[in-house]
Specification:
Number of strands: 13
CATH superfamily of the largest domain: Periplasmic binding protein-like II
Radius of gyration: 27 Å
Structural class: alpha/beta
Order of helices and strands: HHHEEHEHEHEHEEEHEHEHEEEH
CATH class of the largest domain: Alpha Beta
Number of domains: 3
Helix content: 40-55%
Strand order of the largest sheet: 8-12-7-11-9-10
Largest sheet: 6 strands, mixed
Distance between the termini: 58 Å
Amino acid sequence: MRLNQLEYFIKVVECGSITKAAQELYLSQPSLTKAISSLEAEYDLKLFDRTAKGLSLTPKGRDFLEYAKGVMDSSQALNKTFGQKDPSFIHRVAIASQQFDFIYDILLLLYQENTNERLQIDLKENDRGEIVKMVEERRADIGILVVTERDSKLFKSEVQGKNLEVHTLDQSSTYVSMGKKSALYDHEAINVEEAERYLHVALDAEQTLRRELRYKNELKEGLNREHLIFCNTMGVCRKFLEETEALLLSPKWVLGFFEDTEIRSVPLRMNKMPYPQTSYLVWIKRAKERFHPLEERFMELLNEHFRCKK
């Protein structure tokens, strides 16, 4: 398959006729017919139904057209970006992250420092499993996520097997956040036994954790599995905390979302329960790959943020 064959195919679709497409492409009709036939032979499919009224795409032809346009669009983008003698590159940073209260200010500062550059900031907020997958598959270059004390060793071995590096930024104990409708609202600290009795909001829970919370007894401690709301946005968390007696157990890096609200956050006391006591904020990248300047600056700002917090 050559790009000009896809170009010819798309032109035939637009014109609905081999004759008219050949005229617009300044080709002979036999040459264009041969190019289309070669494309059909290469992929062992029929692209057009030929009728007295002209040509119409077959069902597979319609699917092929979608992919052909995607290839041509990518080719044009490559030529536009790299085909010039002095290309003006777009500076890009792609980040996959769980929801944290600090990351938006860092990205805003990064933008303000680069207002004279062609800049693309791509932030994708998702759960932990999807973040790892996005970095591994190059849909993101930096991943930021939480690992608990209980699963940190397993997590690090898993990502090393995917050729990813793990670096720790910060650590946090567990906090309980609640709204005024909670019976525990005035408490200065809450123990696991108290928390277990109430509705819980689980933030950024990946699919495997959802299954474990539903079916495995060993994860019952600290969470009421019979009253559990899974959500991936802080807006939903805030709504349930404000309107119900729900509790959110989380590390400190999301508590800033509750500023200027009546939601309170207090420490979770562990007593003898095995709930993870410490969470680690980590960032990941593909191993042995160097950062571009914009990515390096983002990491400088990120590390500076946590140095100032200590």
